[in-house]
Amino acid sequence: MLKATTLISRPIWVVALLMAGIFFTDVFIFHESNLAFFYLLAVIFGLFFRERNDVILIGLIATLLTVVAIFLKPPTDSPEQMLMARIASTVGIWTAAVLVIKILTLRQEENMQDEQFHALFRFATNGIIIANSRGEIVRMNPAAEKLFGYDNGELLGQLVEKLIPNKLHRMHERHRNDYRADPKPRAMGIGLDLYAVRKDNTEFPIEVSLSPFKTIEGEFVM
Fold first, then answer.
1. Measured on CA atoms in the order 90, 91, 95, 101, is the torsion positive or negative?
2. How far apart are CA 182 and CA 134, in angstroms?
3. What does the pLDDT look like over 23-36, one tens digit per residue?
4. In Å, how far are 19, 25, 131, 170, 203 from 38, measured between CA atoms?
C-alpha cells in the first residue's frame, strides 16, 4: 500500500493525466487542429522530476500519442501534410526533452557538489569559519566550535573579532579591510605569532589561512 501511494504521488502521473487530456482533445474534439505541440508542456513539467529517465519516458509516450493520433483523427489534410506536421511536433518534443534533461543534469551535479562541500565542512578536523564582507560569522563547523568552546550556532552573526584578543581588535579590523580590498588565498600573519581567544577568555596560538569566494549572496572569506 505504501508503494502504491508513493507512485501515485510522483509528478510523472500528473503529467500522464495531462497527456491523456491532450490526446483526447486532439483526436476527438479539435479535428482540424494539430495539438501535438501541447505535449511540450508535459515535457517541460519534467523540470519537477528527479530522474532523467522519467523525462525520456514522457518523450516516448508523447511521441507515441502523436503518431497514434494520425490514424484516429478524421483526415482534414493529405496524409503527407499530416505526417509532416506531426514530425515537426515530435522534433519540438525531443528538443524540449533534451533541454530539460540538461537542466536536470546540471541541477544534480550542483546538488552533489553542495553535499560534498557540506560533508567536508561538517566532518573536517580543522576549524573552518566563513565570514561575510562585513566580517560577520555566517557559518562555523563543529571543529571550530569545539576549538573555541562555543555551542552550535552561538557565534553566528558575531564579528570575527570575537575570536581575537581585545588588544588586537583594531589592528585586525584594519587588516580585514586591507584584505577585502585585495582578496586572494593566502596564509594570515606570515612570520608572526597569532593568537585567538576561547569563550572562557583563554588565549591560544593558532595558524590561519584565508580563502575568498563569491556567491549570488555576496563575498565571503573562509
1. positive
2. 15
3. 888 888 876 677 88
4. 8, 11, 48, 64, 68
